[in-house]
Amino acid sequence: MAEHLDFDPAKIPAPDFAGETYAFMRTALIADANTPEVSTNELAIQCLKEQWEAHIGGLKAQYQTQLQEAETLREQNRQEATAAEDLAEAEKQEKEKELLKEAEKKRLPIYSFQKGLGVDSIPLQLHPYAKKMMTARKYVPLWYFLPDAATEAKERTKESLDTNHLQFAVEDDGPVAGSTISLVGSHSVRASPNAIPDSQLSWPQVTRAKSAFLNALQLGTWPDAFIAMFAGFYSNMDMHRELQEQDGDRVMAHYHAEMRLAWYDAMERKDPFDLSIISDGVLRESRLQIAKQKQEKSLKGMSPPLHQNRDHI
């Protein structure tokens, strides 16, 4: 392999072969038997010149080959770089298309409307957390179907933040599933801190929230038999004679909280029961619990304050 040339041979000046520096070489050529054609000083000068030009010609050809190879390599690198840039741009555009598709999936679809047809009233807005849990067919306190929760849902909808950051959150998935700690976005749907458990709801609150709850069952695409069961659960409680008894509304509210939670717990254990059937045993336990609470409250009201007891000592 020829040695790489770092210079242009065309720029090398021609030597002065007629000068004293080359006198010895001229004499040697004239005396050399292998070059009988060189018999004079002028012929020796011409011979040296021709030898030098042949050598320089070879170097020039080698140098031109180097230049061509270098240019070919540069062009190849340029084409490869261009191809890499084109590929990166194509991948970028493809990724952007995928992101647009994903974003489009998350956008609210556009539905047609009938021009000139308005609404007489605004439907009750479901709390985002209730919507999430109902869609997942999981237990959610009945409070989320009361007007207070609907008001909170409207306020959450109005709060449109320009930033969304990650943060740790403790999410209560209800008494059945328990609590979990997760890393969520600041816009993630979480339980309301104002939620009231079913055990603390009054019977009027239960009856007021039941319609919204029954309407939301469609979010979970429950079979008709299950929807009928839930409807029967509330209608059978509404018509039960217990409501005519003293403290019957408190007893029925307690029964509602116990049975509703028990049914979702049984569903988690893959062993649900017919919730619409009134359980006399559970209803009896609810009566006892309400009587116990009433008695404890009465005894607490009869106990004199501690400072009064000290005054009598």
Estimate the helix proportion, in percent. 55-70%
Given the structure, what is the number of helices? Answer: 10
End-to-end distance, in Å? 119 Å
Low-confidence region ranges = 160-167, 182-186
Structural class: mainly alpha
Biggest pleated-sheet summary: 2 strands, antiparallel
Cα-atom Rg, whole angstroms? Answer: 48 Å
Content of β-strand: under 5%
Mean pLDDT over all positions = 86
Element-by-element helix/strand order: HHHHEHEHHHHH
Strand order of the largest sheet: 1-2
- Overall geometric form: rod-shaped
DSSP strand count: 2
Structure explained in plain terms:
The protein is mainly alpha-helical and 313 residues long. Helices cover 57% and strands 4% of the residues. The protein has helices spanning 23-31, 41-106, 128-135, 147-158, 174-177, 203-216, 224-238, 248-268, 280-302, 306-311, and strands at residues 166-172, 179-185. The chain has a two-stranded antiparallel sheet with strand order 1-2.
Give the key terms.
313 residues; two-stranded antiparallel ribbon; 10 helices; 4% strand
SSE blueprint and pairings:
Blueprint: H1 23-31, H2 41-106, H3 128-135, H4 147-158, E1 166-172, H5 174-177, E2 179-185, H6 203-216, H7 224-238, H8 248-268, H9 280-302, H10 306-311
Write a concise synopsis of the structure shown.
The chain is mostly helical and 313 residues long. It contains 10 helices and 2 strands; from the N terminus they run H-H-H-H-E-H-E-H-H-H-H-H. Helix 1 (23-31) crosses helix 2 (41-106) and helix 8 (248-268) packs across helix 9 (280-302).
